[in-house]
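Render this sequence as a predicted structure.
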Amino acid sequence: MLIETGYIYHIKDEFFTKIKDKGLMSNHEDGHTRPTYFTIKDGDILWFIPLSTKVSKYQKIIEHKMKKYGYCQSIIIADVAGKMAAILIQNAFPTLEKYIDHPHIVNGVHVKVIDSLKDEILNNFNSLLAMKKKGYNLFFADIDKIKEIMLQELNN
């Protein structure tokens, strides 16, 4: 499977069985299938950023952050494949291609976000990574530990 930055995928349950991190979002909610993930290809490591349909919930969080800090880089609300979605950069985590279950398909087409949104997501994600390096961790999962496990899997 050709994996590219900006496309949307689903992840296998196997990943969540292996990685037991309380900061990861649930892979199944209310009887629905797993969430969809915006993907960033970083060599052999893939970064998955969950998308949520709970837009009003996350809009309130964005508004709170805007009042408190004047900006919010950890959540973006945008149209993805004709539906509004909360893009939860704060919930990003690293994984490997082997944990991709399948591409997210709508009307027979693998969903890709528009380039301007892809650029915004990448900029915000890189800003959060830079902040983490400075000691301000805005990621919910232990991304360093998960990345180390993924790199170990690649080397075995």
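Summary. The chain has four helices and nine strands. The longest strand covers residues 45-52.
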